[in-house]
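Field reference: sequence -> structure
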Amino acid sequence: MVHRTAAARAAMACLLLALAAGRAGAGGMWAYESGQTDIGTATAGRAALANDASTAFGNPAGMTRLGSQIQVGLQPTLYSATFDVGPATNVAGTDGGDAGGFLPLAGLYGVYSIDDDLKLGAALNSYAGGDLNYEDDWVGRYYATESALLTFNFNPVIAYRVLPWLSLGAGFSVQWAKMTSEIAINNVAESLADGRMEFSDTNFGFGGNFGALFEIDPRSRVGLSYRSQVGQDFDDVPTFGQLGPGLDALLRRSGVLGASLGLDVTIPQEVMLSAYHELSDDVALMANFNWQDWSQFGDLSVSLDTEPARARAVDANFDDTYQAAVGAHVRLAEPTLLQVGFAYDTSPVDEGNRSVALPVDRQLRFALGVQYEVNQDYSIGAAYEFVSLGGADVDQSASALKGTVQGDYDQNSLNVFNLTVIRRF
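Structure field:
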């Protein structure tokens, strides 16, 4: 008979492995794409462009260059995540199908001009989260069948031009988040079909952002922006189903069934440095260098409200990530602006630590867009961005009951379609 403390450890490990990764979709926790016009440059120049109301999110200091306006961005996105099962996998099942799907994303941005130097603004969007949903009988079902995080972020900001060449901006964020995770539980010892465990909770987290814009001359500017981490604390009583009698009794004796599970996750902080320079009246170049604190996201805290209470720190062995992006604007005619851009993000995790619940890898972005000035009050835009999310090699093992899952994501990508409308007042 299994000792009670050993049973508790086994149950705790099961829950940790199910929930530690937390997020899926979009290839990474952070999504640059949330209805901004700079999607046409793969976000190159985001903190320095200051061309429209989306700067309220990208760098609030840039609002001092704008009059009052509202911007709406619609962004239908197709996410593809197809797992190619490798020879070292020892769990029977399918490849899980395409775990991605359709993501109906959008963003709403506004700037209100109090005077030439003082501006108020706000952003409503989602810059973190996504969804993976595998087939129930796939080879990695004991690690994840569904892994999802949905967020909505409200970010009011203020900006002031303190010197003719220097503007500063700041704001705070209120972020609503919902986490959902589901795994299969192996009842093999009792020759039964798989059991299930589900976890779901919502929470509000808070953060802030700061920006500075340096206008070197009428054709050149540099922007620096910082977005803080946001702590999200999820707490739910996991739901178990189809457990075998032996496993059910084991979890009851250990106090796991009916106990509340807490999971603390940190949405990473970010620093972005951008530059913008007009070569002529018709051509401009822009670039980014970006750092995100993914190692902070990889440090998780998990607690189980049993008697006595249990808690455990989990290090997912994530690394900080860096982005480099370059882009250009080309004026085709007076009302029409062509955009083009490329960006590269490093991987936050290597093969030995990567999970099928969070198959993130390096990212390559290729973007093309167009902005059209209808008149002095309205402009419209469209952009397309292809994001290669890398092969995301996985070699994941935990126990004999979970087995080994080895392979790669031979199709892990995003197709982003973006439509924007700007109304100036």
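Note: The first strand starts at residue 69 and ends at 85.
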